[in-house]
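WARN retry 2 of 3 for item q-0093 after timeout on previous attempt; input resubmitted unchanged.
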Amino acid sequence: MSVYDDKVWLARYDAGQPETITREYDSALDMFKATVARSGAANAIRYFDRRISFTELDELSDAFAAGITAEGFQPGERVAIFAQNVPQFVIAQIGAWKAGGIAVSINPMNKERELTELLRDSGATVLVALQSLHRDVASKVLPGSSVRIVITTSELDFQTRNERAVFSGVERIDCPGTLDLLELLDAHRGTAPPQIRLGPDDVAFLTYTSGTTGPPKGAMTTHGNVVFNAQSYRDWIGIGPDDVVLGIAPLFHITGLVGHIAISLLAGAPLVLMYRLDPALTLDTIEAERATFTVGSITVFIAFMNAPNAEKTKLASLSKIYSGGAPIPPSTVNAFRDVFGHYIHNIYGLTETTSPSHAVPHSVEAPVDPASGALSVGVPIYNTIVRIIGEDGDELPAGEVGELVTAGPQVVAGYWNKPEETEKALPGGVLHTGDVGYMDAQGWFYIVDRKKDQINAGGYKIWPREVEDVLYEHPTVREAAVVGVPDEYRGETVKAFVSLKAGATTTAEEIIAFTKERMAAYKYPRQVEIIDEIPKTVSGKVLRRELRTRS
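OK item q-0093 returned
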């Protein structure tokens, strides 16, 4: 059912959201330059006690672009950024654009095998890496790679108080054979790079995703994609220069790239960076910086609730809270509001949709489906059409479960050097998400799960998140994840992994009994394993494949 054709998008209209918006800039670089001209003296980045204005960020990114150009970088080449949430990430990304290049964001948790694959696939000629990541990972794979220019930097740069707990054990490292970023910037400060004109169809960055199967694929996120969804964040949530953006999502991830960096560059709002996430430090930082907006995985907000300094006053300013990337149990939203007084708004999207394709309007709360207990991920954002299709490819009516298929200005151009994969996932530029869900009669969307995560127990189909939502209702459960495991009788059965709240105790048998009382007989977990931490990616998604290997 097309939400436009059948005019059931009542949630959007009730919230006063317009149906479409118009892209205001041809490129993310134009967007940034407009903000520099308008608000040059304002803070662009706050990194502990360091403040970088938009004018200084413009000068630093100019110097970066001039520096790599002087080293032989050519327009169209790729700049790989292998770093945590530090100002250097933003400087390198904008600098890559100014040199006519494409930024390649790399997960700082990647090891030698993953980095080798991403450098090979992207053909990056420049690598910007934290000194520790160069020493431990990059230095071992660079020989024989396409990289010609290696730039190293320290997380201790761009701030002065190195005694903070988050920097425990961090020290500056000598990296022979590399260029030091600060020295490169100093050498080219005041030098204007060659004039580059970027358009909406030019690729802004490659963001790597494994999708549903296979090796990593570089999603080609265009400048038009970035500008459109930066505006979507701004207009949907109401973000302006008086806001303060809290950078809790990893900057290498699409949420960090768009929901942190791009919205800051567009709105002229300062971006607060903290190197890596420490829940207690983050709560203190929110209070000190008066942060107003953030978007991140629900696991971050669970960590906030379990931090030793979890007090309502810490989040008093943070009135615009969105969460995506992992399912949100309604019980967690309620618990968070009990602790901090703020509602967590759902947002949904993929790497291939440049962050959001759906969101809950800021003025309303998402409904909970009475049958499944699932919290709605919202309604499609501006200019976006989402259909639910069945196994036969036909469109399904409201209430029926199928795959989400998305079309809109935020859908990426395809996968880097993978035309067959592009045609499979994005036929005609329309994204087949691999996510299974449904739309209700009022136009609210609900995600059931990933296709590949469905459990088949004796012919009965079970979606992990439905079981997880019930587990989160247990008073001792901090986090939960459900997978299917082999079973001689049923073929496959449900196993739950749970971690407990600080100081809480329970048994596997008690949790099984709890779920048995609340679910159909074929759904409740036959096995429960209590573990210290649920394994997750750095962006907060549960690593179900790792849990399956433990079973």
